[in-house]
Amino acid sequence: MAQQYEKVALIGLGLIASSMFWAMKRAGTVGEVSGYARSAETRATAREIGLCDTVCDSAIEAVKDADLVVLCVPVGVMGAVAEEIGPHLKPGATVSDVGSVKKAVIDSVGPHIPEGVHFVPAHPLAGTEQSGPTAGFAELFDNRWVLIVPSSDDTDDAAVIRLQAFWEGLGAFVERMDAEHHDLVLAVTSHTPHLIAYTMVGVADDLRRVTDSEVIKYSAAGFRDFTRIAASDPTMWRDVFLTNKEATLEILGRFTEELFALQRAIRKGDGDHLHAYFTRTRAIRRGIIEAGQDTAAPDFGRTGSKR
Amino acid sequence: MAQQYEKVALIGLGLIASSMFWAMKRAGTVGEVSGYARSAETRATAREIGLCDTVCDSAIEAVKDADLVVLCVPVGVMGAVAEEIGPHLKPGATVSDVGSVKKAVIDSVGPHIPEGVHFVPAHPLAGTEQSGPTAGFAELFDNRWVLIVPSSDDTDDAAVIRLQAFWEGLGAFVERMDAEHHDLVLAVTSHTPHLIAYTMVGVADDLRRVTDSEVIKYSAAGFRDFTRIAASDPTMWRDVFLTNKEATLEILGRFTEELFALQRAIRKGDGDHLHAYFTRTRAIRRGIIEAGQDTAAPDFGRTGSKR
Ligand SMILES: NC(=O)c1ccc[n+]([C@@H]2O[C@H](COP(=O)([O-])OP(=O)(O)OC[C@H]3O[C@@H](n4cnc5c(N)ncnc54)[C@H](OP(=O)(O)O)[C@@H]3O)[C@@H](O)[C@H]2O)c1
Ligand SMILES: NC(=O)c1ccc[n+]([C@@H]2O[C@H](COP(=O)([O-])OP(=O)(O)OC[C@H]3O[C@@H](n4cnc5c(N)ncnc54)[C@H](OP(=O)(O)O)[C@@H]3O)[C@@H](O)[C@H]2O)c1
């Protein structure tokens, strides 16, 4: 494929950045990739496993001459990173990010992007429960969606189109969306589900009358799926909830309302209400499988099933 | 392996019964297996795919001369099935079940078991989101737990030991537990997680401002795991909640309390509370993987990850 950016800089070298790097190498669409992470330990690991062509000891060094800079750090520190690198960005370069929240990133990063540099926020809707420089793999974005969320109405269209082609080269589908809608959609499809999973695992861990060892042994009846989600990185998720407060609280309110209605149906023994509710929710599952966004194999294929 | 029961009858021919049948064939521990399901359609499918050595047109016919009868129907109809077959059970036989709730099954089935027949309730903690006669596979119970819940203090010990050996032959680990504790443990590890998943999927389906097609496309960010659980059989789950009302409501109460505390932390911007909570819940995940109750592959291995 043709070269899309001569030099790409990744700031933060965790799950998302490392997956991007391996996917770029697979695609062959960029020249050189430089990287930077906060800790000497992560930088040493990156050098060891060949993550990035050059691992730099400062963000300023990493972004030097870069045509694309991608912020791959937790949402809460993006503003500080942008402030640091802002004065050192190459004129005409594009700054993007992969943050799970978009309005807060636009507000905190935007002011630090100098005239003549394009700021094009984005969010790849793909991830696993693992984190750090060794967690990435080239296939993470295959057939997944990346939402590009232009920071303002006069965002340079050519810069957006170029970033879109870049992500398509990494295996993804791309769509544009405005920041507010993005944050609401993600509150539904990601942020609230994560909070609920964390809560359920917390409840199980808290009970006196059921021991942790019972919870662990008997988890295959449903609970273990929640623990996967609730094993995600605490810093990333703290920042998500602090920065997507409004939409998360709105969806949580809806969730609590519906939960109370089901709770009342259980208390009153209203089997028809329960049955109707449990029937309705099956259609969405079918849609997800038809759209290729999940495997149809029972239990995600992790059981011994051959079908 | 030595023959454990000469004749086994399966009443209900869905996911659990069909998995038991294929696991019995794999183990070679029983003589003949007869089966019965309510609908002519399911019986025809069973005959077609060779599910059971004999498929009978009535439950009474199926249990004739059986040494072990296993009720594999939804919890809410177990009492009626027991009432029907009660007078036709072979003296000295064992009646067991696989119901997800135990106190209600003991109360509804127990009275119909005649003198001289052993009633030994049990619950295999294994399943998938699929149901029906074609959903089963021999490996479903491998390395999973089966809880045997004796119906009374004077349950015949030999009958319990025999049933335990039977389940071990199907690949499972077996433990004994009393009915009340069973229902509480399952409310935590299975019933409440299912209700919460159903609720979250229902909320997503309900929103006007986020379309179903958006929810489907962008589900890989966490939501899709919930849809798998919420695709389970509505009748089975209605019955679970109607019959394990007390324990489910207790755990739901705890869940709501903790959710409100996290919600308050989000509202107040208390990042330390969130971070601490999200850190604590990781230990249980590690325990589950060490205990062999889930795969350590990122994202259950369904991504392209080679690691
Ligand atoms: N994980 C997902 O499922 C997922 C999906 C989509 C989007 N995202 C978003 O992607 C971003 C990164 O997530 P991730 O999963 O890749 O995280 P991760 O694996 O935890 O990696 C985070 C990286 O950021 C670095 N970092 C943290 N604080 C920093 C600072 N103050 N200055 C410089 N570097 C810093 C870390 O460096 P050290 O290693 O030295 O600490 C690490 O290299 C987040 O904004 C997240 O919202 C995540
Ligand atoms: N699925 C799980 O994950 C799981 C795990 C552990 C335990 N369990 C328990 O196992 C039991 C069966 O669940 P399953 O998943 O195997 O269900 P399933 O796949 O839906 O099968 C249920 C079977 O019961 C039959 N049935 C329903 N009502 C009946 C009646 N009134 N008389 C006779 N047969 C009737 C059905 O016959 P038709 O096909 O003719 O309708 C079908 O063959 C339930 O008690 C459930 O709580 C389930």
TrEMBL record, chains A, B:
This is prephenate dehydrogenase. Pathway: Amino-acid biosynthesis; L-tyrosine biosynthesis; (4-hydroxyphenyl)pyruvate from prephenate (NAD(+) route): step 1/1. Residues 6-296 form the Prephenate/arogenate dehydrogenase domain. The keyword Transmembrane helix does not apply. The keyword NAD applies. InterPro entries: 6-PGluconate_DH-like_C_sf, NAD(P)-bd_dom_sf, PDH_C, PDH_N, Preph/Arog_dehydrog, Prephen_DH. NCBIfam families: PRK07502.1 (NF005694). Belongs to the prephenate/arogenate dehydrogenase family. The lineage of its organism: Bacteria, Pseudomonadati, Pseudomonadota, Alphaproteobacteria, Rhodobacterales. Its EC number is 1.3.1.12. It comes from the Bacteria. One of its GO terms (biological process) is tyrosine biosynthetic process. It catalyses: prephenate + NAD(+) = 3-(4-hydroxyphenyl)pyruvate + CO2 + NADH.
